[in-house]
Amino acid sequence: RWERGGTPVHNILRGLWVEVVKPILETLELLKVSQGAESTLPRIWWCPTGPLSFLPLHAAGIYGRGVSETVLDYAVSSYTPTVSALTSRLKGPALMVNEKSGLYLISQVIAPGANPIPGTSREVQSVHTLVSGTNVRVLKHEGKAVSVQKCLKNMKNYTSIHLACHASQNANEPLQSRFLFHNGALDLGTIIRENLKNADLAFLSACETSAGDEKLSNEAVHLAAGMLAAGYHQVVATMWSIGDRNAPEVAVDFYRYLLKDGDAGGRFDGSNSAHALHHAMQALRRRLGESEESLLAWVPYVHFGY
């Protein structure tokens, strides 16, 4: 359903709301929650197939013109590549070794064959400063200090990772999808073979880390699904390229929310990451307004996993 004079993005989100998402919420009898009570919002998991795999169900709604109604008012959205991927997490809660608990941060401003993304350095530095003010273990590597082997080692030594870098997806060979470093590239196949028993949260602040492939729209072929397969219980990713300017703000708001109740004796817990991302997106939305440009800044962010 198209609104005369509406932008393409506004009309797509409106159509998703009217035709797909609102009927589901009504069937589930979910009630709208007032602003400021986001922590009480229920969770909802989307498992789209076909063309719906490319559309932002988590942002469906009517925006602007003084009156808005969106899925964000009713629930905190997550995605799962398959139903079995979600049920397996429900059957077996995460058991992590406390001494491995912590956050490993990587930023790569420059990678061969890719445009520079200077905001990644500010993003990682801001998060490092925030987390360093707590008892949580945190380690930061940037630029030439990052290598494939060093990254793999620290993925074993830290339960959570934040990757602020370029990424490349390979729909034909999903395990060859990779994160691009100044010195080399880290592919999904290598990560999965590491058997990361203590993995908890992965924040993929890279381009199109949850984008599927048109020819394989019913298959989970993106980096976010791969990180779930590698053992991470929660993954934050993006559906399309994100703004270098806004990414640091989203990341800081996200981690500040995760740490708002304290660090539990130095333990870093990503189990509330879906609510944290919801909070960060709403904060950016309030700062930017509801123009098409503003929507394109926060809508790409998605949460996968439990």
Task: Describe the protein.
Pfam families: CHAT. This is CHAT domain-containing protein. It comes from Ephemerocybe angulata. Residues 13-305 form the CHAT domain. With 306 residues, this protein is α/β, with parallel strands linked by helices. It has two domains: 8-91, no CATH class; 98-305, 3-Layer(aba) Sandwich (Rossmann fold), CATH 3.40.50.1460. Helix content is 33%, strand content 17%. The chain has nine helices and 13 strands. The protein has helices at 8-28, 83-91, 119-132, 148-157, 188-193, 223-229, 247-258, 273-288, 292-298, and strands spanning 43-46, 61-62, 69-70, 76-79, 103-107, 138-142, 160-164, 166-168, 178-180, 185-187, 201-205, 234-238, 301-305. The strands form four sheets. It has a six-stranded mixed beta sheet, sandwiched between helices. It has a three-stranded antiparallel beta sheet with strand order 8-9-10. A two-stranded parallel ribbon has the order 1-4. Strand 11 (201-205), helix 6 (223-229) and strand 12 (234-238) form a beta-alpha-beta unit. Helix 3 packs parallel to helix 7 and helix 8 (273-288) runs antiparallel to helix 9 (292-298). It is globular and about 50 Å long. It starts with 7 loop residues before the first helix and ends with a strand. The relative contact order is 0.15. The model is unreliable at 213-220 (pLDDT under 50).
